[in-house]
């Protein structure tokens, strides 16, 4: 009996231990689960990847939760088994892993979910402790073949004809040619590594006035209207911002009191059409402010994915975001920290701040709004505080301890790598004037890698050469692991290892003496490029400081235009597509402005000139410089105070045939035109000058031709047209080329052709495009009829009047004479 009780006790104990227990005050439940398994793609080829999707059909309460310990049993075609996992799911109840088969045949997959508890909080349906029972999915068969079985989507190729915005989201490869310009350039040569195409000619797409400009006229002689240089900034420092094929720019000067109205325009970058023009007013400032910059944030979370674009105004530490498509107010941020600003990999605005009291912070504009889920759901019109005590720490990613009392401030920052600083800027503010700089200078760096942020990497003293040299921080490059400083007295620079602070080269050989008064420089393609008031473009090897080449930009009129130099003072606008784009620019140019100032693109490898247009465009010194996006450059021109866009534009081809119908064996004259179809040619003033359209001309003729068309310079006498290919689809269905010709400076072409068979023809005129124009074509039809030879038919001989009347009469007379003679003979014979 005792044994029976013992057995019953053990059974009861086992029963109790098999029931999950919880001591929560909320209800306790058990729930059956349903595991699943999937594979994409299926079937696949051996060695090809497939995504194994595993989980159960139950979700969890919040995004930070997930099921634990799921496994997948894999049975291979040879009947051996292996186990994948364990895996933890996300809050939806599922997750995935990549599997690559190594055998041909059928694989079987099966998910196993281990039983586990989950406590639903009281916020959800009153709360409950639920015991989710274990479950096993059905078996999934994965078919593996010798060759790849999946047919992938064939990507849409890059365009070969004129294209516009918006670009269909399915055209994924087009990201290479669709760009943006969110941070207006002000003083440095900006390198755009992801701009696949940049213009190879000065072809103008459109021009439109920003304000009154150019020559004033009588009685002011040769005086021109003010253009913002210096200190005025007609276009504003925040111009241009280019996003989604739209250019945003300030219509007036940045300066002014609260009584001044600032307006911003949004213009189609390809056509110059004004989309909107308005004041950007936020509730925080209650007045209009000038445009400062733009942003495009790639937001990817468990709830939402996509890019958010904004244009921004600022007032002190308050930033205001506006919808770029409408100009409507979106949200604001207050107490935005000061510091060194960079852009993150997703377009977020990041700011590193070092404080000599011993701390270093990283602030993220995205985190101010959201760190999970949706980005701005129900947040329009909100003002977000950027202090540490605010939600999501006001956007601060971290705040770490750093060494105290490091001299100077951050000069450059590289995300998740290093920030470098020095005390050059503060000490040279006075020293540049007095020429009494001291030494040594301090160069330092702090680690900003995850888990190491705030650690001192180096803090080194550097003694420059003697001679009361003023030294300023110049540029830095993570790719080349170097930063540079410039000495105006030496007219040269020194290079330092970015991660150790050690000097690695310098000083470089002196540049032209006028570089002392201003220069721009930038790293790209393993080189450092430098230009400025000296009127030279120099290229140096980034890692050694060796000068590779020197391109002087000569003023060809003996200095009579610049007045103070034999070279043109130049500014590097940006570097893209293997080219350096430069333009004449000057701090305070004399009036009248120097004529024939160059705008040019230079090959970044060897310093050869890709194109140059003289006397067309000048860049401002006290406003935003040129910007590039979608292969189009947009900028403000101080010669006439107009805004221009240059780039590859549309063309228009026409063709006619004369006669339309002809007899076989005869010739036909094919005529047509190749015209520039850019929006600017439709301008009322240009259309009045060119009523038959603006001719498309060769790349070699483009610079002089654009000056003639858009700036009213004399017509070039040596302009040449573009090649045209003429082809036919004949009556036998054969497509073939019949000849080539070239249009003239008026855009017209002609070609004399003799059809070789009879029947109907479709005639095609094709312009294949150039560096200035996209292709275009046109067609017409002609008919060729058979020639006919008349058939010979018998005809009655024609008898003349002479034959009809004269000859018979003569014969009758002769006969009568003969008869009369015979009668006379007979009578004479009868006489006795």
What's the tally of helices?
A: 6
| CATH 4th-level superfamily of the largest domain | YVTN repeat-like/Quinoprotein amine dehydrogenase
- Rg over alpha carbons: 42 Å
**Helix content estimate:** under 10%
Shape: globular
CATH architecture of the largest domain: 7 Propeller
User: Low-confidence segments, ≥5 residues, pLDDT <50?
Assistant: 1-24, 426-436, 795-832
Within the CATH hierarchy, at the fold level, what is the topology of the largest domain? Methylamine Dehydrogenase, Chain H
Distance N terminus to C terminus? Answer: 208 Å
What this model shows, in words?
The protein has 832 residues and is mainly beta. The chain has three domains: 30-145, Immunoglobulin-like, CATH 2.60.40; 181-646, YVTN repeat-like/Quinoprotein amine dehydrogenase (Methylamine Dehydrogenase, Chain H), CATH 2.130.10; 651-785, Immunoglobulin-like. 9% of the residues lie in helices and 38% in strands. The strands form 13 sheets. Strands 3, 5, 6, 8, 11 and 12 form a six-stranded mixed beta sheet that branches. Strand 21 (318-322) and strand 22 form a beta hairpin.
What would the keywords be for this entry?
38% strand; Immunoglobulin-like; 5-stranded mixed β-sheet; mainly beta; Methylamine Dehydrogenase, Chain H; disordered C terminus
Topology, pairings included?
Blueprint: H1 2-18, E1 28-31, E2 35-40, E3 44-45, E4 50-56, E5 70-75, E6 81-87, E7 94-99, E8 105-113, E9 116-120, E10 128-132, E11 135-136, E12 140-145, E13 190-192, E14 204-209, E15 241-243, E16 246-250, E17 264-268, E18 274-278, E19 293-300, E20 305-315, E21 318-322, E22 329-334, E23 340-343, E24 349-355, E25 359-364, H2 365-369, E26 383-385, E27 396-401, E28 409-414, E29 418-422, H3 424-434, E30 441-447, E31 456-462, E32 471-477, E33 482-487, E34 492-497, E35 503-505, E36 519-524, E37 527-532, E38 536-541, E39 547-552, E40 570-576, E41 579-584, E42 598-603, E43 609-614, E44 627-629, E45 632-637, E46 642-646, E47 651-658, E48 661-663, E49 668-676, H4 684-689, E50 694-695, H5 702-711, E51 723-729, E52 735-742, E53 748-753, E54 759-767, E55 776-785, H6 801-830
Parallel strand pairs: 1-10, 3-12, 13-40, 22-26, 48-55
Antiparallel strand pairs: 2-4, 4-7, 5-6, 5-8, 8-11, 8-12, 9-10, 14-46, 15-16, 16-17, 17-18, 19-20, 20-21, 21-22, 23-24, 24-25, 25-27, 28-29, 29-30, 30-31, 32-33, 33-34, 34-35, 36-37, 37-38, 38-39, 40-41, 41-42, 42-43, 44-45, 45-46, 47-49, 49-50, 49-53, 51-52, 51-54, 54-55
